[in-house]
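BUG: 3D viewer hangs when loading the predicted structure for this chain

Environment: internal workstation, default settings.
Expected: structure renders.
Actual: progress bar stalls at 90%.

Input used:
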Amino acid sequence: MLKQIKIVLVEERREDAWFDFGLRQLRVGEVRFYRVTDFLTGRWLFKVCSDKEMGRVVVKAIKCPPGILFAQLEGDSMIFQRSTLEGLLYDVVSLACVDEEGRVRRHNVKSLEDVPDVIKRSFEVKPYDEVTGREAPGKHVVALCREGDEKGMITLFLLERAWPLSPVPPDEKAKSLNLLALIKKLEKASVEEVRRAAAESFELTADEVDALLANLEGEGKIRRLDGGYVKVVG
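Structure tokens produced before the viewer hung:
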């Protein structure tokens, strides 16, 4: 699924300034801007500030997809710091959640077992004390990125802060996109043909295909034609 997140560098500044709220200081270093298209949540613009002196990288969301929840992430930052492991920076794993009043909050993951599988499959996760050499209240688990892997850091931001806010599960969205691509490839296809091809290519049942088709039709991405055919819109 992560291959469907498109991250493109759009501007690079060899020297720029930013305010680091963690350090409560104005810092100077390299700054890069990335345009991101996330298949699950939409379009983003990120600012990545590299503080080589302090061994810190600040990843900040400066433009988010529309919506009440995502709007609360605008200006939100994730900090990656130098670990005791050579060449690796760490982020304390904290996942977004929504309280009873609709406000976006975060909670730190307490154990390795509580880390979402999509993060564990793509990043190395370890106990906080193992990669820092110290203990800190409320900090339990970290995810590791290679120094300079700013696209990986942005991906972690999405997985921790954005994906938990999505009303559609990642697996279901990925299946919808696969089915949409299949219909587009077939051009004009009957529902039976789509079911058969989806079963062969993605091991989807007829009921799963019908549910996904209904969702795609509701989103205006496909339309039904006479004779039991479907076609991609646009």
